[in-house]
Amino acid sequence: MWKKQVNNLTRSTSIKFMNTTMEVVLSIVSGAGMIVTSVIGYFLKRTMEKNDETSKLASSTKTELEVLKMDHTNKHAYISEKFDDLKDSIKSLTNEIVKLTDKIKD
After folding, report:
1. What digits encode the pLDDT tens for the residues 31-44?
2. What is the pTM of this model?
3. DSSP 8-state code for residue 18
């Protein structure tokens, strides 16, 4: 009879030990899962912040580029206008020189 009681006690102890072991393993796995999730979340947050900074920088650079294009266009138009004025002045001077040359020859 005592063998039956010892056997029952051993089974009971064995089951309790297995339940305790399963709880410990489950706790360890859950903890490891939480740590991995935290690490992934940290790097994901950093990546998203860098992406936001890059987007802001790209927007700023685009605006500055548009300003520079307009400035370049305005300067190009101004210089073209001045060259046209210079051409007209050269033509006018050339005509004056021709007239003066004709007067001198006569």
Report:
1. 999 999 999 999 99
2. 0.51
3. H
